[in-house]
């Protein structure tokens, strides 16, 4: 369910400017997407886990805010990011 250290390093290397760039918005969105995928799988087997549901919705909201920031900053970066992560484009 949690993102492993190795997977986190892969995402930072793929979406960051360098190997130490874990704070950029693109890397944060990639890490949040990985956590959201894990929690979504958990919710499929435990549909009445409302504490996890709340945490999942908070992560989705945070990712949405970061995506709207990226979209306002550079639309091309936004399009390539959502395409590589497999996220639908529903940010106004």
Automatic annotation (TrEMBL):
Pfam families according to UniProt: Ribosomal_S15
Domain of life, per lineage: Bacteria
Gene3D superfamilies associated with the record: 6.10.250.3130, S15/NS1, RNA-binding
Gene Ontology, cellular component aspect: ribosome
UniProt-listed InterPro entries: Ribosomal_uS15 (IPR000589), Ribosomal_uS15_bac-type (IPR005290), uS15_NS1_RNA-bd_sf (IPR009068)
Keywords: Ribonucleoprotein, Ribosomal protein, RNA-binding, rRNA-binding
Function: Forms an intersubunit bridge (bridge B4) with the 23S rRNA of the 50S subunit in the ribosome.
Family recorded in the similarity comment: Belongs to the universal ribosomal protein uS15 family.
Subunit (UniProt): Part of the 30S ribosomal subunit. Forms a bridge to the 50S subunit in the 70S ribosome, contacting the 23S rRNA.
This protein's name: Small ribosomal subunit protein uS15
